[in-house]
């Protein structure tokens, strides 16, 4: 008998087949090793898969009425929530076309009927181990990423504290813009991180040059050369961190491209946010700053200006509330 702690630690797999005998046979063979759920149709399978506890692996028959296994797998792989669940097809079809199609729609393996239990068990075990190894690697990369970014921001705070305040303001504006524009999460994440790390190349720059860049003063030829060298060094540092190559490219292009008409959409967004912050920091009212930038950066979408105005109004209201609370 399996106790509750062992039961909860076992992988949850789903068996999908319209034939009751096959469901009973497979579930009977695997229930001593895994938590087993069954579905006798593609529609029922998708209900389980999209529920609160999706399976860690799916054994899927192909020939089923209404919705065949290929259609079910296609829907699984089209959803961000379920696309990483490994699907093993089990079918009486043994022709090359069916096998090739099973991999084309996203399956990870193919077992032909009649099957041997030892083979099914071995393949299920292998793909569960691969999935867990992938998850562990992703967690490791995520922790490495967070730790690396925090280290760089802390280092920047020690060398140039004024830049951290600017980075935090830029990040706030950016979060408002990407939310207002409904930019997809994966793309928004790159833009937000690029904004936060925009000044990482300033780590080794003298304070005088840093202050000039913050205020928008023109650098001398030697200062500009040193600035560009350090920016490139900073982006190379970022590019060596897993998953940050696109962030590094965005920062490099932002700093090194003089003509705004050569910037892509995301670089234009960052350029606009950065210039907006600089103007606001110099006492220019948000509406005037936007009018000025609309002329200077004509490629910037109107939605960016709308978002910046909304965020600046929200920030002003919060500051007023804080001052009012302090006066009580």
List keywords for this structure.
7% strand, elongated, Cyclic_di-GMP/3'3'-cGAMP_PDE, Sig_transdc_resp-reg_receiver, alpha/beta, 14 helices, 5 strands, Stage 0 sporulation protein A homolog, 328 residues, disordered C terminus, Rossmann fold, CheY-like_superfamily, five-stranded parallel β-sheet, 2 domains, phosphoprotein, Hypothetical protein af1432
Quick overview of this protein structure:
This protein is of the alpha/beta class and 328 residues long.
Describe, in plain words, how this protein is organized in 3D:
- This protein is of the alpha/beta class.
- The protein folds into two domains: 132 residues, Response regulator (Rossmann fold); 168 residues, Hypothetical protein af1432.
- Strands 2-1-3-4-5 form a five-stranded parallel sheet, with helices on both faces.
- Helix 4 links the parallel strand 3 and strand 4.
- Helix 12 packs across helix 13.
- The longest helix is centred in the middle third of the chain and has 43 residues.
- The N and C termini lie far apart (66 Å).
- Keywords: Phosphoprotein.
- It comes from Candidatus Desulfosporosinus infrequens.
